[in-house]
Amino acid sequence: MTASMINRTAIVTGGSRGICLAAAKAMLDRGSNVCLTGRHEDQLAEALDHLAAPGRAISVCGHAAEPEHQEATVARTMETFGSVDVLVNGVGINPFYGSTSDLPQDVALKMYRTNVLAPLAWFTVCEKVWMGEHGGSVVNLSSAGAFRGGPLLGSYGVTKAALVRLTEQLALEKAPLGIRVNAVAPGTVRTRFAAQFWEGNEEAAAAAYPLGRAGEPEDVAEAIAFFASDDSSWITGQTLVIDGGLLLTTLVDSLA
Ligand SMILES: NC(=O)c1ccc[n+]([C@@H]2O[C@H](COP(=O)([O-])OP(=O)(O)OC[C@H]3O[C@@H](n4cnc5c(N)ncnc54)[C@H](OP(=O)(O)O)[C@@H]3O)[C@@H](O)[C@H]2O)c1
Q1: Nearest atom in ligand 1 to 145's CA
Q2: Cα Rg of the chain (Å, integer)
Q3: 157 lines ligand 1 (CB under 6 A)
Q4: CATH T-level topology, domain 9-255
Q5: Residue 212: is it exposed, middle or buried by C-beta count within 10 angstroms (0-12/13-18/19+)?
């Protein structure tokens, strides 16, 4: 483990559990400070206990798509640590399963607002307050569903595909400012968010993956920390698929 994030500070939205709590831990291990967000104080308090890094980890409670929460989180992080060098846009929602043409407009707007517009808004605040002058690194949580369709998660996949393009576009526009923007695209990771795809169904879920298992939060966290740190200083605009080989099987099947 390198100390590649010493004197850095990362805001991690949706950092109170799952993939992004593991990412916060991976960045703390590399020397960073972290600010976690989530909607529930008790969950955030538990996360801070778990990280056991007093003085280097704080939290701010709120809804990721609310502008006041975004502004307040960045302000609190600046007051506490003096910089916002890294933004991990971890929050993503999937309130709908089924055919995309059945997706109600209000649900579509909610999903697009949280999965695409909120990451952009968080970036804009971080750029205004710190990154625009000092540079930084942004990591967006996309999904393997951005790259393949399916009967249940198609609409969610469309928003995550938009996030891939947003990652590329921001990377291009902000490279002259020293801001890098990358994304990770996980397959099923054993968190609460994806519980219905693995809980009570562990063997079948594992068998779907060429590497013989579903993902763990740490599998993705290490890649997030890599993108966040200077270890990836000449990489921008990329989306790393982390899926135990799942997308490869889809490709082979479609060729057979
Ligand atoms: N797990 C997977 O299989 C998988 C696969 C591909 C992509 N992803 C993506 O990875 C990201 C993290 O997922 P995860 O599996 O780690 O989820 P998770 O374990 O369920 O954690 C979700 C985190 O986000 C917070 N959160 C949820 N909605 C929020 C909102 N509207 N505003 C603020 N915080 C919110 C939750 O805290 P509160 O509930 O307290 O707000 C929690 O901290 C998501 O973007 C997801 O789309 C996950």
Answers
A1: 6
A2: 18
A3: no
A4: Rossmann fold (3.40.50)
A5: exposed
Report the distance separating Cα 68 and Cα 5, nearest Å: 28
* 193 in contact with ligand 1, CB cutoff 6 A: yes
Question: What is the sign of the dihedral through the CA atoms of 149, 151, 153 and 159?
Answer: positive
Cα 124 from Cα 41, distance rounded (Å)? 25
Residues 6+ apart with CB under 8 A from 254: none
Distance CA 158, CA 115 (A): 10
Q: Are 157 and 92 in contact (CB under 8 A)?
A: no
In one-letter notation, the amino acid at residue 234 is W
Per-residue confidence of the chain (256 residues) as pLDDT tens digits? 678 899 999 999 999 999 999 999 999 999 999 999 999 999 999 999 999 999 999 999 999 999 999 999 999 999 999 999 999 999 999 999 999 999 999 999 999 999 999 999 999 999 999 999 999 999 999 999 999 998 999 999 999 999 999 999 999 999 999 999 999 999 999 999 998 888 888 898 899 999 999 999 999 999 999 999 999 999 999 999 999 999 999 655 555 5
Active-site residue set: 156
Looking up tokens 């968190």 gives 191
**Cβ atoms of residues 178 and 132 within 8 Å:** no
Residues constituting the chain: 256
Ligand 1 atom nearest the C-alpha of 47 is 43
Cβ–ligand 1 contact at 16 (below 6 Å): yes
